[in-house]
Amino acid sequence: MLGLSSIIGSGWLFGSWEASRIAGPAAILSWIIGALVIGAIAFNYIELGTMFPESGGMSKYAQYTHGSLLGFIAAWANWVSLVTLIPIEAVAAVQYMSSWPWSWATWTHGFMQNDQISNLGLFVVFLFILVFTLLNYWSVNLLARFTSVISVFKLVIPLLTIVTLLLSGFHAGNYTSQGFMPYGSAAIFAATTSSGIIFSYNAFQVVINMGQEIQNPKKNISRGIAISLIISIIIYILLQFTFIGVVPTGQLAQYGWHGIDFQSPFADLAKLLGAYWLYVLLYVDAFVSPFGTGVSFVAQTSRTLAAMVGNEHMPKFIGKINKRWNVPRVAMVINLIISVLLVALFRSWGTLASVISTSTLIAYLTGPVTVSTLRNIAPNFKRPIKLRMLKIMAPTAFVLASLATYWAMWPTTIKVIIVILLGLPFYFFFEWRKGWKNTATQFKGSLWMIGYLIFISILSYIGSSSFGGINLIPYPLDFVVIIIVSLAFYHWGVSSYTLTEDFHKAAELNNKIK
């Protein structure tokens, strides 16, 4: 339920519309490709999560095998994506509230101004972020009860939407009237990252980062990831299938897929088809779904930041766990402050979303490298779940994550890398305090990642115009280059391991598994 509540957030409310505008009916393939990308990545983390069931685990795995610098880069990239998700869900809820159609709700119409959150709306966003935090502030048990109730609601409403809209007016001709791929095959891949599909799926990691609090992690980490992902993938694909089929044929003929414009896509369709009760229910869910996801991510983000303390590149007081409630309250408060600052500076959903998918994918790149490295250097570690076909799946996941990063388009790639670099002063400050002990070794362990970030930035710039580049390397030759070079970086990464104190800490943690 925790995984499901995180994955089905604000993305389902407008992801189908955004994907259709980019790729037309072929957007349904975008959701399938996105599922394959995230599924391949999650496959690797199931083995890691069960080997090291710990709070904020995804911030630590890379450090175990490649030293503190790579660990810091992965943890910082992951934290950036997560801390941005908190205000994004609050903004999404407030944006939908601003278009509530009822006469008693006219006071909400001032929440948006010029497609951005107004000062009044900003105050409401702050209140949402505060409530997200307080629901996590008093114990994991309260969070679990809340997310279980919310998850049931979030599961039922999309299914009701699918059935009702399909019965109300489905036009099979929508799939062919403008052509199945009206904007070419490149648009299918562009939609996968830029329309929020990767963003919608990537929350599977909440199960891993809550590993220490999960009962029977050997079974429940893999179950939590697999079940929540499978259910979410089915729902998202059915939603896209439904959206394409129920768009009014008149609007489609007049404007084409690029011109389809809805303020609240599924609610607007329900209104056009006369399903008023669903119209009202969708406006309520447009408040509940982002709310549930925001609550889940406060829990995950606080544990991610607290875990960075264990990497010895953040002040120790940030990672302090409240003994009574077993939650990292200081980290929670810091994330609250950062979330408020982010939304005060960037008041639109799109601006906040621009870095999430790419920073997440960069963090995910370390997973396949780490799990393969551990197979080589620690064959005797306990593996409650030892994955088959890892020699194929790990490099495949690395390549797919690389392609999805490229699909985010220039200049998003370079913006995210700059954001990641902004965290390095923290790393070097603590290295200075430790007298630059083993810094050269740590740098060696992360040189492959530094080279990779330079490569993906340059290729994003000189790549095809379909993905924002200058078309020096046209589509699909750009894909071929990414696949070949990414495989080289993957093998470089696996061979760049360093046996530091962190590796011995990993051995001690793994040895505690019963």
Automatic annotation (TrEMBL):
Gene Ontology molecular-function annotations: transmembrane transporter activity
Q: Which residues form the signal peptide?
A: none
Q: Where do transmembrane segments lie in this chain?
A: 22-46, 67-97, 117-140, 152-171, 183-204, 225-247, 276-299, 330-349, 361-378, 390-408, 414-430, 450-473, 479-499
**UniProt-recorded name of the protein:** APC family permease
Q: What keywords were assigned to this record?
A: Membrane, Transmembrane, Transmembrane helix
Keyword Zinc annotated = no
Question: Domain of life of the organism in this record?
Answer: Bacteria
GO CC aspect terms = membrane
Q: According to its UniProt record, where is this protein located?
A: Membrane
Topological type in the membrane: Multi-pass membrane protein
Return the PANTHER family for the record: ASPARTATE-PROTON SYMPORTER, PTHR47547
A Pfam family that the UniProt record links to this protein: AA_permease_2
